[in-house]
Amino acid sequence: MQDFGSAFGLAFELIVGFDTDLLAIVGLSLRVTFAALLISCLIGLPIGAALAVSSFPGRGALVVTFNTMMGLPPVVVGLLAYMMLSNAGPLGVLKLLYTPGAMVIAQTILVTPIVVALSRQMIEDLNKEYAEQFRSLVVPFPTAMAALLWDARFALATVALAGFGRAIAEVGAVMIVGGNINHVTRVMTTAIALETSKGDLALALALGIILLIIAMAVNAAVQGINAKARRNAYA
User: Which residues form the ABC transmembrane type-1 domain (predicted)?
Assistant: First the structure.
């Protein structure tokens, strides 16, 4: 077990020296997270917009369902994804278990409800301002959805960043379906858990510092987007 002082020193050496193992773990984490976020936005934003501007039987139940799914336990998602992707599961033929693809699927399941629920609320509030105008102009449903998505683009960017924060910090689900295999499926969160249990605090601290930097960058991006949106609103 390393003492804390030397562990911090070695951690900064790994970061400043661009350690290859460190870079590989960070790179895989970012690739998996961005892939899951992209898929989640492609699925979630249209669903959120549709729920915001439409009215149909069962809509309330869907809204409640997606709001509830925002708090899905990651280990449960990992277990369900494992069962689907295992050899005995319906998607076992794809041979995705213990691959980055499996981790993308698990993160997508976790992030999509967040994107749907938050975008639905934002677009629904915005739709209240445009609903009467849309009706008077007989704007088609797809056109209204597209217009609202475009007008809410800055707010929706913060939704995407919230999803990114959820995905990048995930550990339970990705460990179950990824297996934390070195140079294959080892990401920042799973590596931190493993290295801490081994007593290798240097690498764990280095990854933790990078994870904190990414979190700060996400928060700064959210504030910047919100500030730009306010400037545009008053322009």
Answer: 26-222
Residue count of the chain, please give it: 235
User: Does residue 196 form part of some domain?
Assistant: no
Domain that holds residue 174: 19-184
Distances in Å between the Cα of 10 and the Cα atoms of 5, 23, 59, 199, 207 are: 9, 15, 54, 13, 12
CATH number of the CATH domain containing 156: 1.10.3720.10
Per-residue pLDDT tens digits for 129-153: 888 888 888 888 888 888 888 888 8
Q: How many domains in the chain?
A: 1
Q: State the Cα–Cα distance between residues 21 and 106, nearest whole angstrom.
A: 24
Residue 47 placed within a domain: yes
Predicted model pTM: 0.88
Alpha-carbon Rg for the chain in angstroms: 21
